[in-house]
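Onboarding guide, step 5: your first structure request.
Type a short instruction followed by the sequence, for example:

Predict the 3D structure of this protein.
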Amino acid sequence: MRVDRTPRGPGVRPREVMAFQGSLPGMQGLLSISRVIDTVNTYIGKAVSWLILVAVVISAGNAIVRKVFSSSSNAWLEAQWYLFGAVFMLCAAWTLLANEHIRIDVVNSLFPKRVRNWIDIVGHTLFLMPFCILLLYDSWPFFLKSYLQNEQSMNAGGLVVWPAKFLVVAGFVLLLFQGISELIKRIAIMRGELEDVHGGGHHEMAEAEAARLLEVAKAQGLLDAAKK
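The system replies with structure tokens like these:
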């Protein structure tokens, strides 16, 4: 849904209206890129999330074998770590897309939507994306050295190490692109070219809790004033 905010009225010259409208196709192109990024990260996130079940099965099987047969394997133990790392890193972008990362909703929800949008824009631009770029700059040599050496686990019977290190690179690449997508959508929302569909889940509960705390604070203030 796109809200028409084209300037109108006797004080607006036709050239100004045309210039304003001429900027819209560029944003629509960026929104198309954003939708592609969202689709890719959603597909990866949903697929990778099934690795949690695989990790649970391996963990349970490894525990049963260790208790019943007094035998275990470092490879199976490390496989659990790898699977957990894969879920944590590769689902981070999907979690950002779903707006499910931990934030101080009780405080954030007290601000008007426009202020919250600005907080997201500043946060993505000055913190999220620079952080992802910095981690990519540091993690790529970390992975490449391990890959070229075909680094192996220091534990007997352990797994190859470099795939686990590659997860760091892949995870922050996906997170960086999702940050770009979120930035595009925030700007489009503030321009009235995209409906703000964020919300639901614990965010609505947090907003309700913030409203309740505000009412309690107001009531307490009135009570204290009455006592005085």
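Each response can be followed by summary notes, for example: The chain has one domain: 24-190.
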